[in-house]
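Hi R.,

Quick one: here's the Restriction system protein Mrr-like N-terminal domain-containing protein sequence you asked about.
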Amino acid sequence: MNFQVTVLKILVAYPDGFAVMEDLKRDMAILATSGRDWADWTRRLAARVPDLDIWSQGLVERISGGWKITSKGRAALEFMEARPAASELSQASVIEETAAAMVVATDVPPLRQPADRAKRRRERRERRREARERARANAS
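And here's the predicted structure, written out as tokens:
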């Protein structure tokens, strides 16, 4: 998930574009755990503005316990969300196909076998049992 794009999206949803830090943190946590779609979407938006820096570019300003999106920040977000031109779409599809091919071509480690899982479970139980015995011995 692209942090800076997420901050812009959260702030633009608030009245006057201002949110206190508690609200920002809460909304950020919700979006961060909302799934892969949000992360992929913010990554695509951020790719349209590779040098994005919301602070140095004046897109967001800090005001008394919170952050506020500026008009420049709103314009940048609108630019990122604008539909890409046909040439950008074809480039995006080529990039996605290349990335998919790279994933297939890379060595993927084998999945853990059920025996591994059972062994780890047994070891955990044994460690817990030993810890309980130590605790009982120390308590007496």
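The beta strands are 18-20, 60-63, 66-69.

Cheers,
M.
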